[in-house]
Amino acid sequence: MKLPELFFETIFHLIESSIILGSLGVVLLNDIVYSAFLLGFVFVSVSFLYLFLDSDFVAAAQLLIYVGAINVLIVFAVMLINKQQSNNTFLLLWTIGDGITFAICTSIFLLLTRVISNTSWSEIYLVVESNKNEKLISIDSIRRIGSELLTEFVVPFELMSIILLIALIGAITLARGEQMIVVEDKIQN
């Protein structure tokens, strides 16, 4: 996209902050249903990030795979859990394990921040080569992926959609909790 730099940075920071806030909501909210929906929001925000960085195919794959399949399965798994909901949205009671986990995650975050900030990204071989070629993924490669999916790999592609449909119907049946009535034929002698 050819956008003014200030506008580009503003939208980019807005998308980044929505990803960070959504991820914090996934981790910090006590209600598992809200966490599942916020995870879907994070997946959509990541696809907007890919779209904003001119990776149209990756953005579409992100929406189809993560939002369309994985998050739906997570929501159905949440529906199967009959957990008692508490009135408290944020649970501020920490255990020893929570403190240890927080310390480990904070140290990993600080280590990754230091490594990322000290890395000279302009000298990495793949970045230099991609700048020479300008476009690694062209329209032709995306068309090739689409044509391969709909010609050579059409049977596995359709079988996967049928398997996902069967899983969806099974999850709905389990979530509704209907009892199956089994009629037994009694053989009279």
From TrEMBL:
EC number assigned by the record: 7.1.1.-
Primary location recorded for the protein, binned into one broad class: plastid
Cytoplasm as UniProt keyword: no
One function term, GO molecular function aspect: NADH dehydrogenase (ubiquinone) activity
Keyword Nucleus found: no
Catalytic activity: a plastoquinone + NADH + (n+1) H(+)(in) = a plastoquinol + NAD(+) + n H(+)(out); a plastoquinone + NADPH + (n+1) H(+)(in) = a plastoquinol + NADP(+) + n H(+)(out)
Superkingdom to which the source organism belongs: Eukaryota
Keywords: Chloroplast, Membrane, NAD, NADP, Plastid, Plastoquinone, Quinone, Thylakoid, Translocase, Transmembrane, Transmembrane helix, Transport
Cell compartments where the protein resides: Plastid, Chloroplast thylakoid membrane
Record InterPro entries: NAD(P)H-Q_Oxidoreduct_6, NADH_UbQ/plastoQ_OxRdtase_su6, Nuo/plastoQ_OxRdtase_6_NuoJ
Membrane topology: Multi-pass membrane protein
Complex formation: NDH is composed of at least 16 different subunits, 5 of which are encoded in the nucleus.
Family: Belongs to the complex I subunit 6 family.
Task performed by this protein: NDH shuttles electrons from NAD(P)H:plastoquinone, via FMN and iron-sulfur (Fe-S) centers, to quinones in the photosynthetic chain and possibly in a chloroplast respiratory chain. The immediate electron acceptor for the enzyme in this species is believed to be plastoquinone. Couples the redox reaction to proton translocation, and thus conserves the redox energy in a proton gradient.
Protein name: NAD(P)H-quinone oxidoreductase subunit 6, chloroplastic
Species, as recorded: Notoscyphus lutescens
